[in-house]
Amino acid sequence: MTGAFYDGLAGTYDLMFPDWDASMARQASQLAEFVLRGARVLDCACGIGTQAIGLALRGYEVIGTDLSPKAASRAVVEASARGVTLPAFAADMRSLPFADGSFDVVLAADNALPHLLTAEDVLAALREMRRVLRSDGRLILSTRDYDAIRNERPLSTPPSVGPGRVVWFQLWHWDGDRYELEMFRLHETESWRVDVSKARYWAITRHEITEMAERAGFDYGEWLLDAYYQPLFIATNG
After folding, report:
1. Angle between helices 2-9 and 69-81 (to 10 degrees)
2. What fold is seen in the domain 147-201?
């Protein structure tokens, strides 16, 4: 379901941003505060390349994987159009196709981890991220602020307008601490066309992620609430 969701969004995901290139540059600048110069980076939820391309443009060696083959393929094309190389292909973060200790940094930004709906799956992903990190390598995750969201339990997001007058909004349908998200895209052609796609998320709290990262073998992680557009979790491979 998750791969199909992002396959469906791969062609238009950049239209969520008023200026996708500016957003890539801004996010890369923020993430680079936690990525040492010369680091080899795996973005294991690269999507169409928002974070991976931005980091590659700053000189990092980045490899991208994503559950969506269409998104990963587009990331390669978009990187090339901007003059950088980004090897990217489809892979599940619970089973990463890399040797032990292959990377200095593993990144899973933009609320990717909460697509995993059970503690067993989250642990499997975190253990794989740790396995492919070198000793003392760094894990960087970002998620929505689920500590607040679980209290508020919102039913929708405000609409936003991207380039070409594409209007986006979401409806959320709650089931305990999980929810189904309906993504609405309204495209203005001769009349308005509506596309709807669905995905499921676990509204996982910061404490729950920290606890599972420790169980996966990471050193104690730190949450930074103002360093990035989402809460940012930094942990070291102990």
Report:
1. 40
2. N-terminal domain of TfIIb (2.20.25)
Q: What CATH number has the domain spanning 2-144+204-236?
A: 3.40.50.150
Q: Is the pLDDT of residue 178 over 80?
A: yes
Give the chain's length: 238
What's residue 189's pLDDT? Answer: 79
Whole-angstrom distance, CA of residue 133 vs CA of residue 225? 24
Q: Which residue has the tokens 């901007």?
A: 82
Instruction: Give me the long-range contacts of 181-188 (CB less than 8 A, separation at least 24).
Output: 183/5, 183/9, 185/12, 188/164
Which tokens is 230 given?
């989402």
185: which strand partners?
168, 195
- Per-residue pLDDT of 5-24, as tens digits, reads 999 999 999 999 999 999 99
Tell me the CA distances in angstroms from 111 to 99, 144, 188, 203, one per residue in order.
25, 6, 28, 10
